[in-house]
Specification:
The structure holds three protein chains of three kinds. Chain A has six helices and no strands. Chain A has helices spanning 20-46, 56-59, 64-85, 89-119, 129-160, 169-196. Chain A is 73% helix and 0% strand. Chain B has eleven helices and four strands; from the N terminus they run αβααββααααααβαα. By secondary structure, chain B is mostly helical. By secondary structure, chain C is an all-alpha fold. Chain C has helices at residues 18-26, 31-59, 70-104, 113-141, 167-195, 208-240, 253-287, 294-307, 323-335, 337-351, 360-383, 385-391, 395-425, 431-457, 474-504, 542-547; one strand at 5-6. Chains A and C meet through α1 and α5 of A and α5, α6 and α7 of C.
Chain lengths: 198, 284, 557
């Protein structure tokens, strides 16, 4: 064996590389951010270009409560990840469950808003440009919330059956990065849909 | 699994842990494709795709959790040590020891050589051009007006082409000096890199090539201007410029490049031991 | 955990059944096998796309030709463009990146082997979905066939009114599916390069190949995602009745152009950066000199990455965007010539004064330098908006970007095939056939694409089905088509060389080129684990250090 082919450089015994899970998640977030950027630009460009009603100012009202729920879930997931890092699985489970609940409440908020828009205000994706862009943008965000909730529910199941260990903290950190991103996107979506676009 | 698990082979068994092959990625990919293909065929295809994708997800999940699956690959291959057919590094004789690894070129002309060359060439060219104006009886300002003609599209091209016009002189001089300066700088940079006969290449070949280039597109850009140019004299002036600039540049003192020195030293900082570390000392 | 031991590469490969072998390849997560799968997949589609191109050229060989019908012609140029970009060049570049990056940075596999397999299969199924339209779109709905909206599928051609049936949907979905694969591979490449380097290989000591592919992967992440978003919008329009690109309801067709070219132009650099990577590995080895100006090369690469994100609308000068927008994109487009020029000069400086060996890979790279320069010069010509107004959507444009993609990318790609073939197969290729391939292809390339500029200058628009005689286009089109036959012959020689050498070539040895990067320190072909001992490096040319212990590189870097 040519085990001696490569002499170890004594000066560089310290060799540390970034964890690949984190890097990959940052790369994925970059890709997702690019997708959202396109939808956000489309929304901004088409503000006020609808040829017929209903217009955003007539039918939209800012969902403050649900927004607070989603944003505070970022906090709870942060505490959950911190608990797991120090090995406190019980407190992790509690924080994790509250994160899922907050996310689910937000999703319920979106669903009820869509229900109202469709059945009461008669706004569908085909109605006008506002409908097209609104449902696409909010729907894309909602899809990401659903994916996040599915992933977190899986983790919750493992926590309940007791398979969750401190050694998984790294992966939970990566998952929480994704959730922070979903929350961050909502701030942008909220701003342009409910503040600028109205 | 951490990267460390990959880092060292298991010395006792002579096997190396590699990620186990898995069918789930292709099943998930096929399922997702079918989900989309269902949009263009029929919803049952999407349903089948969704089932495949879901089973792919679950299977994949079980591949990596709780631990990533590995298979042991027997390390049977002997890798011969790295060798080369050119074992000896030839040490060039004509360099001093600390320049053993030189960044070519070793010497260049300083920037002022290019400036001087360009200015000298510009004078030579101007003299030739004015001589042409006088000899051809078009007037000594003729070449200057032609050079500046592009800036005065409204002026009739032939009416006063031989007469003195101060704005033409100004613009032509600026143009002439700027172009001469940049060509001179180019000469300063390239002459040390030309293999041999720098004066022939820089003074004769380059001007002819350059004139050919100008000749080929001036007809497209400005046919009227093209009619005003006597191409033989044009080439003469270019060659005059090239030879004078080349001679002036090549007479300048060359200076060694400092490419091999670290940036800090080139930038003028006093760095303790900067040279010493890079060159590994004289004793080597 | 599985504990079974598999022999690799098995000496008894012939004795195993075909099904076993197939199963092994289908379920593989090994980066080298996936790399080879990518490459073979791309070669198959290269043949398909090449045949499409040949039919297009035969149709245009003389005026009023009726070799194919106008409808088929539209499908052909759409499929040719889509195939060549998405299912030939991208996969083959990903294949080389997959195969070489772990070997070059001293790793045993990619960061995410299963994701790697998944991404490959997504790309592969995307291509199959696109070509399924030939039977699927027609057979089931009776309206339309293969996509025929051009490879950039401008709205409103893609709206339901003008594209009845499902051919456009096939196009959209195929690109969506393969786009997911591309993004997956790009994420994998980024994570591999940043997280899997062997000891001592700092970012400043990586081979340039790894650097260029890192920037390429970053561009894929930022450029393919907008395409994915645009495809989703198109699907919303076509399936759910949205109005994104529906001008009747206030939507904007120009918006699609922007979204497509936000992807489309960085995509050019996604394709060309790996070509630069090949050149940056091949040129130094065959010049027997280290690459000139490594830090500047890295800087220029990153600069190209950034600038390429801000030049997309130079594809749209003829749309009429207004003076300010035009000016911005003219300037940014011209600016990108600067880092690219720096790279050309650095390659020239690497060759300059070197002890050049004119092996086939080097021949291809030298041709690349000349041709890419010309392609860049016509690019600078086109970047001037007034010039573009004259020649936009003419054959001049077609000649320009084929000069980039064929003269630049495909030439280095052929060089890469010959350079790494000994490593991948363990066999040496035939140098005679390689040179024959080079000269045939060079002649064919120049016959086709040099002369294609001229009918463009004379006003021949792209994508026309046929033309009137007597416009001065006839002779040029004839020459252009003749060149195609030379290129086809060259491709036959190339494939023949690969196949013949794989079975009959003489053993190559581990390091046939006396090269300097890590992949040449292991066996040819490399074992599944790449390196028995994970290497540790001290300079950019680790094998130079090992070969010349008396004069190692790390004393100078």
């Amino acid at each position: 064996m040519s085990t001696t082919s490569f002499p170890l450089a004594p000066t560089e015994l310290e060799w540390k590389l970034p964890p690949r899970g984190r890097i990959a998640m940052f790369a994925l977030i970059a890709a997702e951010a690019a997708i959202f950027t396109i939808f956000v630009v489309a929304y901004l460009f088409y503000i006020g270009k609808s040829l017929s009603g209903p217009m955003p100012s007539e039918v939209l009202s800012p969902p403050f409560l649900y927004t607070v729920c989603l944003l505070s879930s970022s906090l709870t997931i942060h505490f959950a990840a911190r608990s797991l890092r120090v090995g406190n699985v019980r407190s992790f489970g509690a924080w994790w469950l509250s994160t899922i609940s907050l996310g689910a409440i937000f999703l319920y908020g979106t669903a009820s808003e869509w229900h109202r828009l469709i059945y009461k205000d008669g706004l569908t994706i085909t109605t006008n440009l506002f409908g097209t862009t609104y449902y696409s943008l909010v729907g894309l965000h909602g899809f990401h919330v659903v994916v996040g909730l599915l992933a977190m529910t899986t983790v919750m199941v493992f926590t309940i059956v007791g398979a969750m260990k401190q050694e998984h903290a790294e992966r939970i950190d990566v998952l929480s990065l994704y959730w922070h991103f979903v929350d961050g996107v909502w701030i942008v979506v909220f701003t342009i849909v409910y503040v600028i676009g109205r | 699994m951490s990267i460390d698990a990959l880092a060292q082979p298991d010395e006792r068994t002579e096997t190396i842990e590699m990620p186990a092959s898995s069918a789930w990625p292709i099943i998930l990919a096929f399922g997702l494709t079918l989900v989309f293909a269902g949009l263009v065929t029929s919803s049952s295809v999407s349903l089948l795709g969704a089932i495949l994708a879901a089973s792919g997800c679950i299977g994949w999940f079980r591949d990596v959790l709780p631990r990533e699956k590995h298979e042991s690959v027997s390390a049977i291959e002997m890798t011969p040590p790295v060798s080369t057919s050119r074992p000896r590094v030839a040490v060039v004789e004509w360099m001093t020891e600390e320049l053993h690894r030189a960044r070519l070129p070793l010497e260049v002309y300083p920037i002022r050589a290019g400036v001087k060359g360009g200015m000298a060439g510009s004078v030579a060219m101007a003299v030739l051009a004015v001589m042409y104006g006088i000899i051809s009886r078009r007037g000594m300002w003729y070449a200057i007006n032609v050079l500046a003609a592009g800036f005065f599209p409204g002026r009739h091209p032939l009416a006063q082409i031989g007469a003195f016009q101060w704005d033409s002189l100004l613009i032509a001089s600026v143009l002439h000096l700027l172009v001469s300066l940049s060509v001179g700088l180019l000469y300063g940079a390239t002459l040390p890199m030309l293999p041999r006969h720098p004066i022939v290449l820089g003074g004769l070949v380059a001007p002819i090539l350059w004139s050919g280039l100008v000749h080929s597109f001036i007809e497209l850009i400005d046919p009227t201007l093209n009619q005003q140019i006597d191409w033989l004299w044009f080439v003469f002036s270019q060659i005059g410029f090239g030879i004078v600039a080349g001679i002036v540049v090549s007479r300048q003192q060359r200076v060694p490049t400092r490419q091999h020195l670290p940036f800090a030293i080139r930038a003028g900082f006093e760095v303790l031991g900067g040279i010493h570390e890079k060159d590994g000392g004289k004793s080597r | 955990m599985s504990t079974e031991s598999i022999a690799w590469p098995s000496a008894s490969a012939e004795s195993r059944s075909f099904v076993d072998t197939l199963h092994e390849w289908v379920t593989t997560v090994d980066h080298k096998r996936l790399g080879i799968l990518y490459i073979i997949y791309a070669l198959v589609f290269l043949l398909i796309g090449g045949i499409e191109a040949a039919i297009i050229r035969i149709q245009l060989i003389r005026p009023h030709n009726n070799f194919v019908s106008p409808q088929v012609f539209n499908r052909l140029f759409t499929m040719h463009g889509t195939t060549m970009i998405f299912f030939v060049v991208m996969p083959v570049l990903f294949g080389f990146a997959n195969y070489l990056i772990p070997l070059m940075i001293g790793a045993r596999d990619m960061a995410f082997p299963r994701l790697n397999a998944f991404s490959f299969w997504m790309t592969a199924f995307g291509g199959l979905l696109l070509y399924f339209s030939l039977v699927g779109a027609n057979g089931l709905y009776g309206a339309g066939n293969a996509p025929d909206v051009g490879w950039f599928a401008y709205a409103p051609l893609t709206s339901r009114t003008f594209s009845v049936g499902h051919s456009t949907d096939f196009w959209t979905l195929a690109l969506l599916v393969s786009g997911f694969g591309s993004i997956g591979t790009a994420i994998n490449i980024v994570a591999t390069i940043l997280c899997m380097r062997c000891q001592g290989m700092t970012l400043a000591k990586m081979p340039l190949f790894a650097w260029l592919n890192l920037v390429m992967a970053g561009l894929v992440i930022l450029a393919v995602s907008p395409l994915t978003a645009a495809q989703i919008m198109l699907l919303v329009d076509r399936y759910l009745g949205g109005h994104f690109f529906d001008t009747q309801a206030g939507g904007s067709a120009v918006f699609w152009m922007h979204f497509f070219w936000i992807f489309g132009h960085p995509e050019v650099y996604v394709l060309v950066l790996p070509a630069f990577a090949f050149a940056s590995e091949i040129i130094p080895v065959f010049s027997r000199k280290p690459i000139f100006g490594y830090p500047v090369m890295v800087g220029a690469t990153v600069a190209i990455g950034f600038i390429s994100m801000s030049v997309w609308a130079h594809h749209m000068f003829t749309v009429g965007m207004g003076a300010n927008v035009n000016t911005f994109f003219v300037i940014s487009t011209m600016a990108i010539a600067v880092p690219t020029g720096i790279k050309i000069f650095n390659w020239l400086a690497t060759i300059w004064g070197g002890k050049i060996e004119f092996k086939t890979p080097m021949l291809f790279c030298i041709a690349f330098l000349f041709q890419f320069l010309i392609a860049g010069l016509t690019g600078v010509m086109m970047s001037a908006a007034p010039f573009d107004w004259q020649l936009g959507s003419s054959y001049f444009v077609v000649a320009h970007f084929h000069y980039v993609i064929v003269g630049g990318i495909l030439f280095t790609l052929f060089g890469a095939f010959y350079y790494w073939f000994p490593k991948m197969s363990g066999r040496m290729y035939s140098e005679t056939l390689g040179k024959l391939h080079f000269w045939l292809f060079l002649i064919g390339f120049h016959l086709t694409f040099d002369f294609m500029h001229i009918p463009g200058l004379l006003g021949m628009p792209r994508r026309i089905y046929t033309y009137e005689p007597g416009r001065g286009w006839d002779t040029w089109n004839f020459i252009v088509t003749i060149g195609v036959f030379f290129q086809a012959a060259a491709i036959v020689v190339f494939l023949g060389n690969l196949i013949w050498s794989y079975f009959r070539g003489k053993a190559a040895g581990n390091d046939p080129w006396d090269a300097w990067t890590l992949e040449w320190s292991t066996n040819s072909p490399p074992p599944a684990y790449n390196f028995y001992t994970i290497p540790s490096v001290q300079s950019r040319r680790p094998l130079w250090d090992l070969k010349h212990p008396d004069d190692p590189d790390w004393k100078y870097e």
